[in-house]
């Protein structure tokens, strides 16, 4: 092991598991009752609870491990860092919106508006539909153009914005360690970290309630920065690991409170500048932060070791992420029409999309051009 830049295997495993759960999450989206790109004729509110629970922490974990990965990338590749971010994030995003995402929009148009022309006719209409949109000064366009791969330009923009902060952290690492040691010296100090999360959401969510607008950008950015700082001081993860079951108890309590009072809390969570909304976002942030710490602590406790499959799994995360939702929608469009039970359809969609992803990945990793388009390093 390189003692100057050690490998934190629990971060790699957490990254693999967080992105892997997207297969489960987006397959479930076919069967919950909330709007999505494609829906089964049979839906069930049971799936709503799973979606809401996973949604309360899944992207926060992804941005946290992305911050940790950015720390390692900056430390080992400072000269080629920007070039690496472009090739790993921007190239796959452009490739995705041109090739990977249009099939999703095609099947969505068939089901939701009864589109009946050919796929190539549909493609010819996309530029005009994009030109007709007016997004304003926000990042909602990342999701409109890229559907699920909005995360790639989001992460690139965050990285560019926070480069000066990262440089300060590297230059003043001793001071950062002393400061974070104070913060992580007690659970009371730890919960004070939630104050900026709560303030940003309370001030921004009523003004920018749409998903991927500035309220979400602020929250995702704070978890991104937390992941970066986490790697600058190894004692932080030790603090979290020792108290992981306390955080689990807090997370379970918060989520249980939500389940018991769902209707009332849903009313309180309507964005405005009221005290009731403030209460709802305090509860929401305690819940989300607790579950992020739980998964972080459990990963450190049980998954901080190498495995012969870990390198290949880590390399395949980005191609799997880019491919997964398109394959779920493609397979799902045909499978939800079969005469099967809802659970049978769910399992069949999940299995076929997952196996298809593995097969396509085996092709991608053999050719440098495909590796480049999917954000992988050259062979």
Question: How would you describe this protein?
Answer:
75% of the residues lie in helices and 0% in strands. It has 19 helices and no strands. The chain has helices at 9-28, 45-55, 58-76, 81-100, 102-113, 119-131, 140-146, 151-171, 173-183, 187-192, 194-204, 214-232, 235-242, 244-260, 262-268, 275-302, 310-335, 342-364, 368-373. α1 (9-28) crosses α16 (275-302) and α8 crosses α9. The two termini are 22 Å apart.
Key traits:
379 residues, mainly alpha, globular
In a few lines, what is going on in this structure?
The protein is built from 19 helices and no strands. It has helices at residues 9-28, 45-55, 58-76, 81-100, 102-113, 119-131, 140-146, 151-171, 173-183, 187-192, 194-204, 214-232, 235-242, 244-260, 262-268, 275-302, 310-335, 342-364, 368-373.
What portion of residues belong to β-strands?
under 5%
Percent helix range: over 70%
Counting H and I runs of at least 4 residues, what is the number of helices?
19
Rg on CA atoms, Å = 21 Å
Total beta strands:
0
Distance between the termini: 22 Å
Main sheet properties: none
Chain-averaged pLDDT: 94
| Structural class determined from secondary elements | mainly alpha
pLDDT < 50 stretches: 1-5
Molecular shape: globular
Multimer state: single chain
């Amino acid at each position: 092991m390189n003692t100057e830049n050690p490998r934190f295997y629990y971060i790699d495993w957490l990254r693999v598991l967080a992105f892997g759960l997207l297969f489960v999450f987006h397959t479930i989206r076919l069967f919950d009752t909330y709007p999505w790109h494609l829906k089964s004729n049979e839906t069930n509110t049971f799936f709503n609870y799973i979606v809401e629970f996973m949604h309360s922490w899944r992207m926060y974990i992804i941005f946290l491990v992305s911050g940790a990965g950015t720390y390692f990338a900056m430390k080992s590749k400072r000269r080629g860092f920007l070039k690496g971010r472009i090739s790993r994030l921007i190239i796959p995003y452009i490739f995705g919106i041109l090739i990977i995402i249009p099939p999703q929009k095609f099947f969505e148009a068939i089901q939701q508006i009864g589109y009946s022309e050919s796929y190539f006719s549909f493609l010819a209409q996309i530029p005009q539909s994009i030109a007709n949109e007016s997004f304003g000064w926000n990042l909602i366009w990342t999701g409109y153009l890229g559907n699920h791969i909005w995360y790639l330009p989001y992460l690139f923009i965050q990285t560019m914005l926070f480069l000066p902060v990262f440089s300060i952290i590297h230059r003043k690492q001793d001071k950062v360690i002393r400061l974070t040691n104070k913060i992580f010296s007690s659970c009371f100090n730890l919960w004070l970290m939630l104050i900026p999360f709560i303030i940003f959401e309370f001030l921004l969510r009523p003004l920018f309630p749409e998903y991927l607008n500035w309220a979400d950008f602020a929250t995702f950015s704070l978890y991104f920065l937390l992941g970066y700082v986490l790697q600058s001081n190894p004692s932080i993860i030790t603090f979290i690991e020792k108290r992981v079951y306390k955080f689990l108890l807090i997370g379970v309590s918060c989520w249980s409170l939500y389940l018991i009072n769902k209707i009332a809390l849903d009313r309180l969570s309507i964005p405005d500048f009221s005290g009731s909304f403030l209460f709802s976002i305090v509860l929401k942030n305690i819940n989300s932060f607790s579950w992020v710490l739980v998964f972080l602590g459990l990963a450190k406790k049980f998954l901080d070791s190498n495995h012969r499959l870990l390198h290949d799994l880590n390399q395949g995360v980005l191609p799997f992420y880019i491919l997964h939702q398109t394959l779920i929608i493609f397979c799902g469009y045909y499978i939800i029409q079969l005469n099967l039970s809802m659970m049978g359809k769910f399992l069949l969609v999940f299995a076929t999309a997952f196996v298809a992803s593995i097969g396509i990945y085996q092709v991608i990793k053999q050719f440098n051009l495909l590796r480049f388009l999917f954000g992988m390093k050259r062979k």
